[in-house]
Amino acid sequence: MSHPTREQKTYDLLVVGGGINGAGIARDAAGRGLSVLLVEKDDLAAHTSQWSSKLIHGGLRYLEQYEFRLVGEALAEREVLLKVAPHLIKPLQFVLPHEPHLRPKLMLRAGLFLYDRLGGWSGQKQSLPKSFATSLAQSPDQHWGAGLKSQFVDGFVYSDAQVNDARLVVENAKDARARGADIRVGTQLVRAARIGDYWQATIRGTQSQGAHDPFENINARAIVNAAGPWVKSLLDNIDTPETKETVKHIKGSHIIVPRVHDRKHAYILQNRDGRIVFVIPYFERFSLIGTTDVPVTDFATPQISEEETDYLLALANSYLAKSLTRKDIVSSYAGVRPLYDDGDSNPSEITRDYTLKLDTHNKGAPLLNIYGGKITTYRKLAQHAIEKLLPFFPHATPSSWTHQPLQSGATAAALRALKGELRGRGLTQGYAHRLVNRYGMAADALANKDMGEVFDETFSEAEIGHLRDNEWANSAQSMLQRRTKTNLLATPQSLARIHVAISAALR
Questions:
Q1: Which of 192, 201, 227 is nearest to 20 (CA)?
Q2: Residue 30 contacts by C-beta under 8 Å, 6 or more apart in sequence?
């Protein structure tokens, strides 16, 4: 058996990638007693994990592709995650307007009947309301058709959940750190080579290191490649035989517009091409519309295209009473999903399931490559990843544990009570609501400090230090986009002052 160099620090697990999968794996592994180092070259949730449709859902349309196992696992996970992070994940009802020429009522009823029950067949009790048929006609006590054209008279209502995706990544990383994991943001894997039963790896700080050498050599008993869109290209830095697995990079784009109706439900809209698009309430003032499915080769800096914008507007306008134009678009974004290439040529038909490939070349130290996946099933993906590695770590706790809440004591009732308590300390209702929905129970300690200036009931000077010191946020973008969405919520005048305050704090 080969042993690592003594002067280099040795970890059980080196996780490469700070998206939801990497953060979830680091949390699971640390909680099982493994020593973990996670490296992320940019920022937590800097790429795919902040550009999702913000949903925790089974994926209703996947039933047409006979992905029953994936849908069932996702629906069971939806229930678990509602308890794991109640400050970040909230129930949300969806209205499906009926279009007779697209899918018959009987087909929709059958699909929703399955959808209501697949999650429960795993033994996970389902708490959200079951689906039902409804009229979309407007009346004083009927609102399911709010914002739709009057031609839509029948529909169905079903339940799923909405998530603050980037914050879910951060919360998993924070919990991993609390359990002993070493989280390095702004650090990339330069190279790694097997030395018997260990990996010898060189990592490099990509941000300013002052007088310190940015390169560091470490040892790891196993590596997890959770680099998302870079899962294949990262292998160029790892000394191991070339893999036959391939990835299809599929871009999904969204537009953000002013709220299309004043009710709390979302819409799932059918298009003639067989795809569906969501119209989702987003914070208090906006609606999020997406997504698209476009194969791409440039996955580093994806942007929404003119064609995608036209596609989303056209589909939304075929349903909405008040037409949207490009002038209504407040913001837009695009993310790239690294889907496992299962040979399907239709981007919408490629499986969203995850695939885990274990590489132990010449019976050497293990390398686990993560392909595909969706945010809803990240916890299960992490669990299965660690289970694949358990034979190499006999000292690790074998049982799954990550169904436990990310924050002790966080329940819907406790979060409501905390909002009331923060109002008693002088915070406005709007800011107390936003602070608790952002930080959960951690808002209690944060609000004990001098909050400084509170900008537009959406962000305060006190949050700058909190984000810098506790959440690896080292730029205005990381604070105002990924951690808080203040870029979207604050006025231009307030944003200018916030940028000045952040610059001063980071100096």
A1: 227
A2: 36, 176, 179, 180, 181
Shared domain check, 312 and 457: no
CB count, 10 Å around CB of 398?
A: 10
Percentage of the chain modeled with pLDDT above 70:
96
Buried b / exposed e over 171-207, threshold 16 CB at 10 Å, is: bbbbbbbebebbbbbbbbbeebebbebbbbbbbbbbe
d(CA 56, CA 77): 8
Q: How confident is the model at residue 1 (pLDDT cuts 50, 70, 90)?
A: very low
Cis peptide before 291 (omega within 30 of 0): yes
Give percent above pLDDT 90 in the chain. 88
Amino acid at 226: A
Pairing of strands 238-239, 187-195: parallel
Domain match, 327 and 459 both: no
User: d(Cα 80, Cα 359) in Å, to the nearest integer?
Assistant: 31
By C-alpha distance, which of 331, 365, 339 is closest to 67? 339
- The total number of residues written for the chain in this structure: 507
Domain check: are 252 and 337 in the same one? yes
- The reported pTM is 0.96
In this structure, what token pair is assigned to residue 56? 């925790």
Query: Considering its fold, how many domains does the chain have in total?
Result: 3
Same domain membership, residue 309 and residue 448? no
Tokens standing for residue 340:
């496992």
Residue at 407 is within a domain: no
Residue for token pair 């994990």: 49
Q: Which amino acid is at 272?
A: R
Instruction: Answer whether residue 344 shows pLDDT above 70.
Output: no
Q: Which DSSP letter does residue 479 get?
A: I
Residue 249's pLDDT is what?
96
Q: For residue range 77-129, list pLDDT tens digits in order.
A: 999 999 999 999 999 999 999 998 888 999 999 999 999 999 888 778 889 99
Same domain, 260 and 336: yes
pLDDT tens figures, 390-408: 999 999 999 999 999 999 9
Q: Are 111 and 32 in a shared domain?
A: no
- Tell me if 96 sits within 8 A of 268, measured CB to CB: yes
The predicted-structure confidence for 262-306, as pLDDT tens digits, reads as follows: 999 999 999 999 899 999 999 999 999 999 999 999 899 999 999
Largest Cα separation within the chain, whole Å, is 75
How would you label 316-352 residue by residue, b for 16+ Cβ within 10 Å and e otherwise?
beebbbeebeeebbeebbbbbbbbbbeeeeebeebbb
Do 281 and 266 form a contact (C-beta atoms < 8 A)? Answer: yes
Q: Which domain holds residue 468?
A: 412-506
Query: Phi, psi at residue 426, to the nearest 5°?
Result: 110, 0
